[in-house]
Specification:
Strand content: 5-15%
Shape: globular
Low-confidence stretches: none
Number of helices: 21
Largest sheet: 8 strands, mixed
Mean pLDDT: 92
Structural class: alpha/beta
Distance between the termini: 52 Å
Oligomer: single chain
Number of strands: 11
Radius of gyration: 24 Å
């Protein structure tokens, strides 16, 4: 009981501080303390059962998105609590189905239960009706892809042995679907749109790399300003959201800005900001831009196993100039002890879907050293999921 009492005091203290300021570090500590308090209070069987019964609640959320229940609740809730009867009418669902789905949603805190078969939206409901998060639910809680691939992991390991898949062609996803995840999405444009929409929403939620890494302090002197000098190469940049944000904030810095991605991506780029060059490039081939000040990979490495990362990081290192070029990697840096549920789940998800992984600092050091690079520092912000790994030539 002493542990519970201590944790209650810790939560109370952090909650008081939370009310007084918008401090990301304090907020992260408060959430962690609440989680530890719940684990301390729960009986072991309660913890086990709570985890075991998570899959049906995830499916309830997916059903609520697909059937339009959350949208109907937000729309109807503007004038007061909404009955299950009204939700059933507006979504053309059987009322008892609505009741059973809403029972899960209210238990998870996704919406409020104001009385028998009566509901109202809360801030979580409203957040989940944004297009980016709805598409995220469609990406992550798919009946026919992610969930079967994850559930099939045990069968996959039974068939191939208890080992980690080493490339996208041999993942549990590929085992189930007979295609890699990105090959699968190529044939399903709607799923690709969901994926891109969710990735864009994640980028808006998270601090960007140039809000973590000290750009002004590091680049305030020594930049080259010739017509061919390159300031930043964003490798695997998709449609250039990070580059455009960087240019908006640091557009006065000299040097070219280069966006690199596969030809099928670069040819779909429209309305790229002036001063940003799009270049078709496969990063498993030699890097054509030599001597840039910064080479940047944003949430790329976690899609690949170590050997693949060493291939393209070595290609990047070969293009870097000693004493001038810096490599920046924006990705998870998982703590050796005390990883969050989200980081641990992301790691398993990357293994199942693409054969990738989320790495600890020790693992980052290992693949960088194997690529001819030295990890200089890991830059992080309190409460942020991703960090910036800074590296230079050995």
């Amino acid at each position: 009981m002493a542990l519970i009492a201590n944790l209650i005091g810790e939560v109370a203290s952090l909650a008081q501080a939370e009310g007084d300021s918008d401090n990301a570090e304090n907020h992260a500590r408060l959430l962690n303390s609440i989680h530890r308090l719940q684990l301390a209070v729960e009986k072991p069987i309660e913890t086990a059962k709570r985890i075991m019964y998570q899959p049906p609640t995830n499916i309830a959320l997916r059903l609520a998105v697909e059937l339009g229940l959350l949208d109907a609740l937000v729309t109807g809730g503007r004038s007061g609590p909404v009955s299950a009867t009204l939700l059933a009418e507006s979504t053309q669902c059987e009322e008892i189905l609505v009741v059973r789905i809403m029972r899960c949603l209210t238990a998870m805190g996704i919406c409020n239960e104001d009385g028998p078969r009566t509901y109202s939206p809360n801030e979580v409901t409203k957040e989940l009706t944004s297009e980016g998060l709805k598409d995220g639910v469609r990406c992550l809680i798919r009946y026919n892809t992610v969930i079967p691939a994850t559930a099939g992991l045990l069968g996959y390991l039974t068939a191939f042995g208890p080992r980690v898949p080493t490339h996208a062609e041999e993942t549990p996803f590929a085992y189930i679907e007979k295609a890699t995840m990105f090959q699968w999405m190529e044939k399903r444009p709607k799923q690709r749109r969901y994926f891109d929409s969710f990735m864009a929403a994640r980028r808006r939620e998270a601090p960007r790399w140039f809000e973590i890494w000290p750009v002004s302090d590091t680049l305030k002197s020594g930049l080259r300003s010739g017509p061919d000098d390159v300031l930043l190469v964003d490798i695997g940049a998709s449609h250039g959201h990070d580059l455009m944000g960087f240019k908006e904030r640091y557009g006065s810095f000299p040097g070219r800005l280069v966006l690199q991605d596969l030809p099928e991506t670069t040819r779909t780029i429209h309305n790229l900001a002036e001063g940003i060059e799009a270049m078709a490039y496969d990063f498993f081939t030699p890097q054509p831009v030599a001597g840039a000040r910064i080479y940047y990979f944003g949430t790329v490495c976690h899609d690949f196993d170590d050997d693949s990362c060493v291939i393209f990081l070595t290609g990047t290192a070969d293009a870097m100039e000693r004493g001038y070029s810096t490599l920046l990697i924006y990705d998870y840096v998982v703590p050796e002890v005390g990883a969050s549920v989200r980081a641990a789940a992301m790691d398993l998800q990357m293994m199942v879907l693409v054969g990738g992984m989320e790495r600890t600092e020790i693992q980052w050091r290992a693949i960088l050293r194997a690529s001819g690079l030295d990890l200089v520092r890991v830059w992080s912000l309190p409460g942020a999921s991703e960090s910036v790994v800074e590296a230079q030539l050995l």
